[in-house]
């Protein structure tokens, strides 16, 4: 693949980069049983451009809500949410969300290619749509499945269709809510590597939620731990692992184990010992 | 052409056809051997010759045309109005709040009681028949469409917002196709109901159509011809349904692929 989907200035890891997301003292309450229940409490975080950030935390700590706030699907009650310096009030083409439940997020009456075309229709000439669809499907390795209906594909392939649909928008940020949570271990590993490829090719910022500490460490530059109800960010760790990563080599590095141990401790106790 | 026929032959449920043939043979047997004898129960061959007579004498066509035209007009009105109102009721909580009670009252009223009223208001003509059929067929279309829209998973709303689809695009590209299956079910029910109500209103006071012809044959003491009309109404229902399914297959391949998936 010589053509990168996002032709944003590629940013070298480690250099001074500008910020993708800036969240300042974000609080969110959502209506539940007639009353407003606090979901997120005083969340502040920054995500640099081109960075891969994982958000881990136990169930019910507001991980999904945090991602929805970043995507503009939910508005914060108080606090600031900035994407590249602009307040996020609704979904923009700059940040696209990929959901865990690919089966209900894809349109079963559309073929793979037409699912990927959904966000492009009416926004650009047909020829450009075709180019983008081809590139996005190529990037997730589904170029030969363009004419199939998604429900004829395996779960891993369906999730790749959803990722391709997000990539077709050429967003600068990919937000992913437990993208590989519903997949088996082998499929998961291959999709993780595919995501790393996509990241290397596009330079997109990626923020994803996971329950899986190993996945968080393996994929990310930084891991945030969210804890409590209402949830707040209790810990943050730079993985400091070299790229490109390798399912066997990277997972053998001493640093990998150190970070995993640290995250495991925080998740168990809610703070660093 | 050869493949078309072999495909069609494979689609036919031969066991089912065998049962029908068996029932007809048994019927012929018990009637012609007088094991079973009623004045008004002719044997299949008698009904067949009556049918042949109706076709050849030209008595059948005007009646068939009238009923078909009324039922189709009624169906089109019902599908258009029911589909639109159903979509609005499913999409908008406000519309649903204002209309649900009224819909439930009107739809639980047996349509047959409206026939004399309609004839009083519009006279015993085509207009009354079409409106009666449309009124009856409206409800299944409306109710299944509204339920279909409400069945859309909330996730698709998220997808529509994160991909920044406009309200119109979202309705056109997600809501309507998602509801397509339910609308098709509604449209098929509506077609049957439209045909039934048109025939019934012809029997109960209108001066044309198959229903009217059937009642006239009854008073003329022509049971075989009466039975022939009964068969024609049945065949009409089957043919209309098959035509509709084929039409949807051609016009919306995605929806019919989905329907096939649920069968698989």
Key terms for this structure?
heterodimer; A: 273 residues; alpha/beta; Rossmann fold; six-stranded mixed beta sheet; four-stranded antiparallel beta sheet; 34% helix; globular; disordered N terminus; B: 264 residues; 2 domains; 0% strand
Could you describe the 3D structure shown?
The complex is a heterodimer of chains A (273) and B (264). In chain A, a hairpin with a 4-residue loop joins strand 9 (222-227) and strand 10 (232-238). With 273 residues, chain A is an alpha/beta fold. The longest helix of chain A is centred in the last third of the chain and has 18 residues, at 185-202. Chain A starts with 18 loop residues before the first strand and ends with a helix. In chain A, the strands form two sheets. In chain A, strands 6-7-8-3-9-10 form a six-stranded mixed beta sheet, sandwiched between helices. Chain A has a four-stranded antiparallel beta sheet with strand order 2-1-4-5, with helices on one face. Mean pLDDT of chain A is 91; it is low at 1-16. Chain A has two domains: 19-94 and 172-269, P-loop containing nucleotide triphosphate hydrolases (Rossmann fold, 3-Layer(aba) Sandwich), CATH 3.40.50.300; 106-170, no CATH class. Chain A is 34% helix and 25% strand. Chain B is mainly α and 264 residues long. Chain B has two domains: 12-41; 42-263, MetI-like fold, CATH 1.10.3720. In chain B, helix 4 crosses helix 10, helix 6 (114-122) packs across helix 7 and helix 11 (223-251) crosses helix 12. The longest helix of chain B is centred in the last third of the chain and has 37 residues, at 167-203. The chains are: A alpha/beta (273), B mainly alpha (264).
């Amino acid at each position: 693949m010589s053509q990168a989907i996002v032709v944003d200035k590629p940013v070298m890891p480690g250099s001074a980069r500008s910020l993708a997301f800036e969240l300042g003292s974000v609080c969110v309450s959502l209506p539940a049983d007639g009353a407003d229940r606090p979901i997120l409490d005083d969340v502040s975080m920054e995500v640099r451009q081109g960075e891969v950030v994982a958000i881990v935390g136990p169930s019910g700590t507001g991980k999904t809500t945090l991602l929805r706030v970043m995507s503009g699907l939910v508005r914060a009650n108080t606090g600031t949410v900035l994407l590249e310096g602009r307040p996020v009030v609704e979904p923009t083409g700059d940040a696209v969300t990929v959901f865990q439940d690919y089966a209900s997020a894809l349109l079963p009456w559309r073929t793979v290619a037409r699912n990927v075309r959904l966000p492009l229709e009416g926004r650009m000439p047909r020829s450009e749509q075709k180019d983008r669809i081809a590139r996005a499907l190529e990037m997730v390795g589904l170029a030969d499945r363009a004419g199939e209906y998604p429900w004829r594909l395996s779960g891993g392939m369906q999730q790749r269709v959803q990722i391709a649909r997000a990539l077709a928008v050429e967003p600068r940020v990919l937000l992913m809510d437990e993208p590989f949570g519903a997949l088996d271990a082998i499929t998961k590993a291959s999709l993780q590597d595919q995501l790393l490829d996509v990241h290397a090719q596009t330079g997109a910022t990626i923020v994803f939620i996971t329950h899986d500490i190993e996945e968080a460490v393996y994929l990310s530059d930084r891991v945030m731990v969210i804890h409590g109800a209402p949830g707040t960010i209790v810990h943050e760790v730079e993985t400091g692992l070299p790229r490109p990563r390798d399912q066997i080599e990277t997972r053998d590095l001493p640093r990998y184990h150190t970070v995993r141990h640290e995250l495991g401790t925080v998740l168990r106790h809610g703070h660093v010992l | 052409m050869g493949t078309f026929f072999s495909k069609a032959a494979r689609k036919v449920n031969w066991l089912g056809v065998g049962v029908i043939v068996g029932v007809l043979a048994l019927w012929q047997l018990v009637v012609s051997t007088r094991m079973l004898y009623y004045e008004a129960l002719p044997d299949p061959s008698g009904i067949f010759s009556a049918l042949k007579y109706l076709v050849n004498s030209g008595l059948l066509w005007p009646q068939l045309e009238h009923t078909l035209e009324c039922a189709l007009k009624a169906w089109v009105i019902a599908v258009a109005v029911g589909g639109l109102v159903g979509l609005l009721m499913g999409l908008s909580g406000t519309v649903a709040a204002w209309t649900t009670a009224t819909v439930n009252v009107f739809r639980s009223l047996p349509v047959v009681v409206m026939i004399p009223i309609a004839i009083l208001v519009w006279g015993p003509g085509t207009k009354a028949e079409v409106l009666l059929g449309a009124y009856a067929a409206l409800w299944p279309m409306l109710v299944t469409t509204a339920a279909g829209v409400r069945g859309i998973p909330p996730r698709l709303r998220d997808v529509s917002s994160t991909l920044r689809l406009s309200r119109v695009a979202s309705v056109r590209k997600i809501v309507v196709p998602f509801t397509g299956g339910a609308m098709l079910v509604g449209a098929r029910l509506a077609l049957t109901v439209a045909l039934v109500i048109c025939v019934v209103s012809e029997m109960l006071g209108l001066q044309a159509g198959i229903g009217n012809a059937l009642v006239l044959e009854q008073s003329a003491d022509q049971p075989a011809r009466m039975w022939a009309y009964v068969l024609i109404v049945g065949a009409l229902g089957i043919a209309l349904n098959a035509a509709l399914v084929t039409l949807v297959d051609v016009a919306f391949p995605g929806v019919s692929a989905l329907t096939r998936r649920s069968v698989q």
